[in-house]
Design a protein that fits this description.
It is a single chain. This protein has about 400 residues and is of the alpha/beta class. The chain has a single domain, classed as 3-Layer(aba) Sandwich (Rossmann fold), CATH 3.40.50. Helix content is about 35%, strand content about 15%. The chain is built from twelve helices and twelve strands. The strands form three sheets. The chain has a seven-stranded parallel beta sheet with strand order 3-2-1-4-5-8-11, with helices on both faces. Strand 9, helix 8 and strand 10 form a beta-alpha-beta unit. Helix 6 runs parallel beside helix 7. About 0% of the residues have low confidence. The protein binds nicotinamide-adenine-dinucleotide and sulfoquinovose-uridine-C1,5'-diphosphate. The site of nicotinamide-adenine-dinucleotide has 27 residues, from helix 2, helix 6, strand 5 and strand 9.
């Protein structure tokens, strides 16, 4: 298939582009490189050094013999995405290209507005480009498990049957997101569902849990092909952060009571799930939702696993206030059978996976900036003072 990978320079987009290319698909990566600008704005870097997009693509072609094309531009620029869709004539588009950090979206008004404009307008432009160019293009969009929030009932895959005053219907599952970032995904989902209904588009919304790990078959072929690995308090996700903290002797930063339970998956399963969604497309007019995670753990359970596996003693930070407003003990039981029904064979989290992540950290420990670990964004405040942020000309993209 001809496939566009939007956000193909990011943590998940880059390894997915390589994986799809390795399977013989014709790949074009689309990205405005803004993720690299957030690093400069925050004054942090990926733990693993990442090559330029040009060098990555050249190395992949040299090693695999497969060409990956690149289009650099911004999805909020409608003319750009219309031109890319018209020129590339894709059969499918995988959309990773959004601002994806909850803390970043909660820094202040500017960052909340930037996040929602970037994500919602980017996806709207894309939907219009598909509708006006070729409505049969299958849109595979990365959403988040956090769209649902943490209700005291089982979470279904996108829809729930409700009986109310004697009448029954299947309705979108209620959404209770926990940040302006997570809210942007809720808005995207509603917009896509509407476009499928009124224009007959076809879309798969992948409500993904938290991804961990960095190693994939293709990115391991050469250091130039490596994907990023974030451990800072704004972009680092919880298990990746705990592995860095354990190796560097930093107490594990469990926020609050630590009973927050999340759906999790290995980065290799992100690649597998996206591939399954692409190779088993939605029907015309269908808006389908897959819950994309393989296991669930509480934050405390993850900290204890890391503590147990780490060869050196590790403390769990005592009584760390939770900078977020979220349930710290809650019921969590979410359905995730649709991707398994398509053939997903999960890579489960075990001691070996955590050991592998710690070995990765050990190899790059000289690059760890311990100042980047403490949380700096406070949900209760509408204007957080980011201790790590340095004023940067690269932040001009925030001027919305
Ligand atoms: P990332 O920030 O590493 O990658 C996103 C990429 O999109 C970056 O390369 C960025 O430059 C690009 N981008 C952002 N806005 C753009 C725009 N307007 N135009 C063009 N390119 C743009 O994020 P990631 O961790 O790879 O996540 C990818 C997707 O998966 C996101 O949509 C995210 O919400 C979702 N997701 C991620 C996780 C996770 O744990 N990382 C979990 C669930 C869902
Ligand atoms: N947490 C800690 N200590 C830390 C970091 C996080 O206790 O040092 C807690 C948070 O309070 C939260 C949980 O761990 O309860 C997860 O936090 P996270 O930063 O790992 O993940 P989150 O903010 O939810 O966002 C990440 C990705 C986002 C994706 C989401 C999937 O950045 O793009 O959408 O995971 S989900 O969580 O299922 O919504």
């Amino acid at each position: 298939m001809k496939i566009l990978v939007l956000g193909g320079d990011g943590y998940l987009g880059w390894p997915t582009a390589l994986h799809l290319s390795g399977r013989g698909h014709d790949i074009t990566v689309v990205d405005n490189l803004v993720r690299r600008a957030y690093d400069r704005e925050m004054g942090v870097e990926s733990l693993v050094p990442i090559a330029t997009l040009g060098d990555r693509v050249r190395k992949w072609e040299e090693i695999s013999g497969h060409a990956v094309k690149v289009q650099v531009g911004d999805l909020t620029d409608a003319a750009f995405i219309y031109a890319v869709v018209a020129e590339c004539e894709p059969e499918a588009i995988v959309h990773f290209g959004e601002q994806r950090s909850a803390p970043y979206s909660m820094i202040d008004r500017e960052h909340a507005v930037y996040t929602q404009v970037n994500n919602v307008v980017g996806t709207l432009n894309l939907m219009y480009a598909i509708a006006e160019t070729d409505p049969s293009i299958h849109l595979v969009k990365l959403g988040t498990m956090g769209e649902y929030g943490y209700p005291n009932i089982d979470i279904e895959e996108g829809f729930i049957e409700i009986t109310h005053k004697g009448r029954t219907d299947v309705l979108p599952y209620p959404k209770q997101p926990g940040s302006f970032y997570h809210l942007s995904k809720v808005h995207d989902s509603a917009n896509m569902m509407f476009a499928c209904r009124v224009w007959g588009l076809r879309a798969t919304d992948l409500n993904q849990g938290i991804v961990y790990g960095q190693s994939t078959i293709e990115t391991d072929l050469d250091p130039v092909l490596a994907t990023r690995f974030d451990y800072d308090a704004v972009f680092g996700t919880v298990l990746n952060r705990f592995c860095v903290q354990a190796v560097t002797g930093h107490p594990l930063t469990v926020y609050g009571a630590g009973g927050q339970t999340r759906g999790m998956l290995h980065i290799r399963d992100t690649l597998a799930c996206v591939t399954l969604a692409l190779e088993n497309p939605a029907e015309r007019s269908e808006f389908r939702v897959f819950n994309q995670f393989t296991e669930s753990f509480s934050v405390r359970q993850m900290a204890e696993m890391v503590q147990r596996v780490c060869p050196t003693p590790v403390d769990i930070a005592e009584g760390l206030n939770n900078p977020r407003v979220e349930h710290e003990e809650h019921y969590f039981h979410a359905a995730n059978t649709k991707l398994r029904d398509l053939g997903l064979q999960p890579h489960l989290l075990d001691d070996g996976v955590i050991t592998g992540m710690m070995e990765l950290v050990e190899r790059h420990r000289g690059r760890v900036d311990l100042n980047a670990i403490a949380p700096t964004v406070e949900w209760r405040s509408s204007s957080s003072i980011l201790k790590t942020a340095s004023p940067s000309s690269d932040a001009s993209f925030l001027a919305v």
